[in-house]
From TrEMBL:
Pfam families: dNK. ATP binds at residues 10-18, 137-141, 185-187. InterPro entries: DCK/DGK, Deoxyribonucleoside_kinase, DNK_dom, P-loop_NTPase. It comes from the Bacteria. Keywords: ATP-binding, Kinase, Nucleotide-binding, Transferase. The keyword Iron does not apply. GO terms for cellular component: cytoplasm. This is Deoxynucleoside kinase.
């Protein structure tokens, strides 16, 4: 069987990590979870985006770079498939929203250098939802650093994801994207919704690992 990398993506609070864990269990995949709340700039960022965005994004980029290097050598090259609760392309989505033009140009140059030879996803799971659903789920998990999150920032982020994913599918027709509308699905609390999601993903996992 061929080893593959599956990434789960979507806005903050939409359920990426929960779904990645379920996929890991269901399909016997190595799980990769991003380092988020260890980021020392996260709380400061939500309080003052302009002031702390560059520090925040550089921390995330360097940590994700190291994680993907490790999963490539320890798992993918050892014929072990991996599911991750992020795709490193998210760095460009967030940075284009938060960084000044000058810092963005510097950041994207570093991003291009670091990601040039990193493993790319064979399958992307994209979770979407309205701002109301996203904010309700963020409130339900009640994490300290997210309590000061700006609703307008989240609205822009959801729109940025939609725009990016539309372009991604056109630019990468060889990478399948499976999209789920989480306004109508709650795979964390409803077993029937989780079954539906897994049943949609399973045929593509089998197809990709059989190649």
């Amino acid at each position: 069987m061929k080893s593959i990398l599956i990434t789960v993506e979507g806005p903050i609070g939409i359920g990426k990590t929960s779904l990645a864990r379920e996929l890991s269990r269901a399909f016997e995949l190595q799980l990769l979870e991003e380092i988020v709340y260890e980021n020392p700039f996260l709380g400061k960022f939500y309080e003052n985006i302009a002031e702390w965005s560059f520090q925040l994004e550089m921390f995330f980029l360097c940590n994700r770079y190291k994680q993907l290097q490790d999963i490539h050598s320890k798992y993918l090259q050892q014929n072990q498939s991996v599911v991750s609760d992020y795709n490193i392309f998210k760095n460009t989505i967030f940075s284009k929203r938060t960084l000044s033009d000058d810092n963005l140009n510097k950041y994207l140059k570093i991003y291009d250098i670091l990601t040039e030879n990193l493993p790319q996803a064979h399958l992307v799971i994209y979770l979407t939802a309205s701002i109301d659903t996203v904010m309700k789920r963020i409130a339900m998990r009640d994490r300290d650093v997210e309590r000061s999150m700006d609703v307008a920032y989240m609205e822009h982020l959801i729109a940025d994801y939609e725009e990016f994913m539309d372009a991604f599918e056109k630019q990468h027709p060889d990478i399948p994207v499976i999209k789920f509308d989480c306004d109508h699905l709650d795979f964390v609390h409803k077993p029937e919704d989780l079954r539906y999601v897994l049943e949609r993903i399973e045929p593509k996992v089998k197809e990709l690992t059989a190649e």
